[in-house]
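Appendix C: a fully annotated inverse folding record. The material below is reproduced so that readers can follow the format used throughout the book. The structure is listed first as tokens, followed by the designed sequence.
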């Protein structure tokens, strides 16, 4: 194994005083020997900047207005000097030992440019809710669902030369758009380890901007794949009909949702009849939709989830 690469972690932040310390400690307490941590703050007014000042030389930070999360991450990418990049939002955390595990893998596999691991969803207090639905890499499946958890992805900085930066025009699907572009040119390796925790609570963007998220996802997959899969049409239809957050209150299937999803899919793909075959394959028809609704398993609670042995 070669020398451990320098890892740069970029943390965009705006008024996340409640979570920023947990995020920063999860990075700094990794004990990784060659670490660079950049916090790109968007001009917080809630005491975040005062907390950043207490860390002294342990991290680098700036605080100035920006146009959103994508621009903040791009500022960090422009400043990072590490060979390997990690992007950790200011309410998420790394699990113990994650950076050394990632660094050792990159050192032993110089031909690999991108990796991702498993992750947990946690609540506001940091308690595990359930594992993220991570899957083995498949570029086709990526059109139907984003199966990689953003803080559990690491990539070589050199990939930016042919992939580019994040799209500052996106507020919610900025990571999904970037993964599609990155993975097409640099197929990732899935690591058999839990690396990160993604915090879910009503005020975060994923849940708080659900409609905007679907609109951006629809535009993203249509841009990159040329059509909008049934999975996203159904998810959007379920949200529009029931107005549920689809995390604490899972996606629902019903006759109105089924009809609305088909109408949305026909509209999104009006110049591409591919959606008809996609619907047949992925949904297995109306009967399957109602069957899934009736047979849906109850959601696990945090107390029912045990962390896999050997995966901290």
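Designed amino acids, in order:
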């Amino acid at each position: 194994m070669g020398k451990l690469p320098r890892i740069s972690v970029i943390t965009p932040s705006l008024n996340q005083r409640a979570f920023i310390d947990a995020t920063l400690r999860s990075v700094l307490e990794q004990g990784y020997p060659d670490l660079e941590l950049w916090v790109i703050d968007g001009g917080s007014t809630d005491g975040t900047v005062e907390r950043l000042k207490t860390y002294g030389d342990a991290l680098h930070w700036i605080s100035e207005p920006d146009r959103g999360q994508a621009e903040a991450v791009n500022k960090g990418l422009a400043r990072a000097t590490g060979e390997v990049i990690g992007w950790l939002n200011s309410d998420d955390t790394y699990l113990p030992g994650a950076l050394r595990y990632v660094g050792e893998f990159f050192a032993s596999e110089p031909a690999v440019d991108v990796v991702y691991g498993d992750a947990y969803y946690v609540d506001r207090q940091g308690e595990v809710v359930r594992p993220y639905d991570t899957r083995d890499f498949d570029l086709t499946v990526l059109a139907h669902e984003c199966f990689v958890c953003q803080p559990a992805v690491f990539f070589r900085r050199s990939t930016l030369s042919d992939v580019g930066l994040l799209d500052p025009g996106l507020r919610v699907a900025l990571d999904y758009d970037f993964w599609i572009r990155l993975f097409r040119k640099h197929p990732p390796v899935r690591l058999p380890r839990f690396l990160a925790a993604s915090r879910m609570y009503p005020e975060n963007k994923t849940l708080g901007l659900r409609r905007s998220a679907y609109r951006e996802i629809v535009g993203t997959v249509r841009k990159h794949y040329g059509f909008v899969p049934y999975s996203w049409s159904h998810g959007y239809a379920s949200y529009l009909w029931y107005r549920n957050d689809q995390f604490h209150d899972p996606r629902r299937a019903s006759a109105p949702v089924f009809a609305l999803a088909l109408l949305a899919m026909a509209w999104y793909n009006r110049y591409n009849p591919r959606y008809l075959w996609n619907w047949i394959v992925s949904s297995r028809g109306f009967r399957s939709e109602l069957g899934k609704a009736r047979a849906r398993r109850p959601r696990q609670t945090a107390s029912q989830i045990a962390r896999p042995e050997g995966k901290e």
